[in-house]
Design goal:
DUF2798, transmembrane helix, 161 residues, DUF2798 domain-containing protein
Length: 161
């Protein structure tokens, strides 16, 4: 959807902010950590998560997902199919890495509580996929695309200077 580098940055910022805000809140709620943290700790965790998510989106997961999507055998002229494929690969990649971030935050905050590392990470990963997939495909993705197209493409806002 973005047509140049600046649009890609704005689109990525919007998408990452929305997803990190919802997913961080979700993870703090299901882990039971939200009542044990101060507002300052929550803000630090969300900001740190946002920075990591942006890095992953722009430099690792995003380019990899695009490369794989372009290699898949389907008509790339189908915008819907391209967006669904790209979004699904982005979700799986981001959940894989951001679940590691969540695991580490939880581990350093409260330990493993008797669980193995694989079990703890697997639980976090599955819980995150369960929310991230529908959140991205049905809510955040369409909302960000709508806002982006309305405010950055339809009004002729010049982003490519």
């Amino acid at each position: 959807m973005p047509t140049n580098k600046k649009e890609s940055i704005i689109f990525g910022l919007m998408m990452c902010f929305g997803m990190v805000a919802v997913m961080s809140t979700y993870n703090l709620l299901i882990s039971g950590n939200i009542q044990h943290l101060t507002l300052q700790n929550i803000v630090i965790e969300v900001v740190l998560g946002f920075i990591i998510a942006l890095f992953l989106d722009f430099f690792i997961v995003g380019p990899f997902a695009k490369k794989i999507t372009l290699k898949l055998p389907f008509a790339h002229s189908s915008k819907l199919l391209f967006v669904l494929c790209m979004s699904t690969l982005m979700i799986l990649g981001m959940v894989f890495f951001m679940s590691m971030f969540g695991f580490l935050m939880s581990y350093f905050g409260q330990g493993l509580e008797g669980r193995s590392m694989i079990s703890a990470y697997g639980t976090i990963f599955i819980r995150n996929v369960v929310l991230a997939l529908p959140l991205q495909l049905l809510v955040m993705g369409p909302a960000v695309r709508f806002i982006f197209s309305k405010y950055f493409q339809k009004r002729g806002v010049e982003l490519s200077s």
